[in-house]
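Comment thread on ticket #2218

A.B. wrote:
> Attaching the input chain for the structure job we discussed in standup.
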Amino acid sequence: MAGPIARFIDHAVLLVLLTLIPLRAVAGETHTFETPRLLRGLASFGPSPTTTFAIAAIIVACAGWVFASGAWRGRRLRTTGLEAGGLMLLVASIIAFARAGQKHLALIGAADFLTIVLYAITLRQLLTSRWHLRLGLAVVMATAGMLVAKACYQKWVEWPATIKYYEEHRAELLGTATPANDARSPGALPATQRATALSDDASEQRREGLIHDYEARLRSGAMTGYFAHPNILGSCMAMLTLCCGGIAFTRWRSGRRGAMVAPTLLAFSCAGVLIGSQSKGAGAACIASALFFLPGMVRSIRPDLISPRITKPLSRTFARRMVIAGWILAAVGASSLFAMLRAEPGLLGLSMRYRAMYWEGAKAMVDDVGVWGIGPDNFGRHFTRYKPVACPEEVDDPHNWLIKSFVEYGWLGAAGLLALLIGGSLKLATVPSPSQEEGWGEGDPRAARTQSVVLNLAVVLALFALAWCILIAGAPSDFTIVMLALGLAPFALFFVAGAIERADTTSFDESDMPLLAAGLGAGLVAFLAHAFIDLALFTPGAATMFFAVAAIALAAREPRQFNLRGHNHEVRVLFRQIVKSLAVAAATTALVAIMGLRTTAMYFYGEHTPSISRTPGNSGSHDFGFWKTIDLNPLDGTAVEERLDLLSANIASTADTDYVLKLANVLKRRDPFNAAVWHHRMAAYSARFAMTGDVADLRQAVAMQQKSVEAYPTSPLRWLALGDLLERLAEQTRDPADRRAAAEALQRAVDLDGQRIYVSKPNRLSAELVQAIRARVERLR
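C.D. wrote:
> Ran it. Output below, let me know if you need it in another format.
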């Protein structure tokens, strides 16, 4: 292939990869179809698992081009230190996927994180000049400005308007049960044909608790930006505060005072948003990381503080020694944290006490299922079985990247993640040898067009806007305009402000590079430190930003223009092997993406009527749409579960119960650790008993509810539902053993609720309900 064409494609691929930084920051990706299922009634637009699969396919395609063209042109591989850990994670993901219960979550979770690692390695290959560094830094600063603008808009416009609207329309928004399910409505099913022992989610107690939690979060006013949780924004702001501060310090040291205005403004703005996110852990991580890197910054300003006799050897080993010392301190700190929380869980406040409970449940999980992993993103499917009774939340993530990798990917995955992070940090601290020949960079006249700030901004902005429009396709026009303006305007402003340094040059001084890398490294350390007690590292938008900054920092360690050509035969052979592997991976990813696109299309554009036909054999559009969705994605159980949710509450005949049990078997095969299986089986047998009076069906309902209790043994409401069924069974059989079992189940519900001391009052059993349960227990005994 001709040189100019290859270089043009290289630059286009670089712009595509850089566009993913702001795109994934605003996309709000989700790995599960349960989220679009919940929001379908509100909006027919937004991200879905298809978004993640499509982005993964784009990354693999870009990597395929970069490594294939490198092999053809004999270009040497720029190592990042991430390769060994990435391979270990790949092997661990395959093993964990085979062991996973929910295969869809395992597949998308592994594909997402592995392609993000591949993204960093690929981006590093394309950062071949100082101009590319400026371009990458401009995108990072522009993304920071965009996040700051969104957070401020959210704090002073969105939250007040939302609270005002909610307070004015609270009764209308909350309402009551829908007429189709209201027992008092003319179209409701007879009471004798309604399922007994309603699930937790259907209980009024649960509903009131959810309303309380929503209102508390709304009143808190914590900034979340485009992310789902304030702590994720906090992790990003801790990183971006130090990164922008490092860029400003680098420009100040080189005398570019005007060019330091934009990064300085961003650093202070990000620090303000960090405070607004109300994430104390992120703030502490930011301060600790800044203090850790402070000696290096002081040394850069006053090198005379160190004896000249040791200055030269120290300059070669200082960064590596700092990294080694940092990892030793991290190990000691993590061990001390675990020891303190084990000895006194409340020592560091309620937030850390809750995390200690998550980690306690994770330890019990590993002890039970083994050390080879339960599958990526499958933590939530198992956690309720091991959740401490006092733990207030049913989480899907242990809020610790090391524990998450160990539980979900197994010991090999945890070792791979550590190898990846340690390898990357050591590579960042290594002073490379100077290249022997110049590459295509700023001095080449053929690069003049690609160095235009306006042109690059136009391309990145166009790609970003196009992808964002696709994500929110179907949204109201005013919403689309506000969202695009709120994101694209600050992005363009800070891109230009951050990219233009001096009119007479587009290059960095050689002395700038270590300082720049150190500033970016400080941000990476702050991100990792906070993610150790939170969930940002496995969140697509935050993780992409983290690894993009890592790739830019690694590129900044090169001492001069890069050697684009190598003559090592073994390297060429390795490239060809990588190309073959990537070709297979690209084909696989494309197939998965196509499957995801078809599934999402059915979810969003399939006709789903608000009521269902009570005749299982009906092949109307609603039933047809569900079955098409069920058949399109054999790994996912969301469509099956949604169909069951609608059917279980409206069973009208024994044929309906057979249909529900059939669907429950499908859900069991696809999602074996989903406790909803037992609830729907219980509902079917309970409804059949209401229609036939056969005690055998009631015994089956009791058995299914016992399985549901085993899946969540610390839930008072599940024990209460079991007690209801056992009490009803005792009325039919007159067996004292059944009466005792019912009394024990009801008493267990009361006891467990009394131990949930950290659960908010609306989420606990009311005093009146507890008194009524105790009266039933006395009567049964």
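A.B. wrote:
> Thanks. Noting for the ticket: The radius of gyration is 29 Å.
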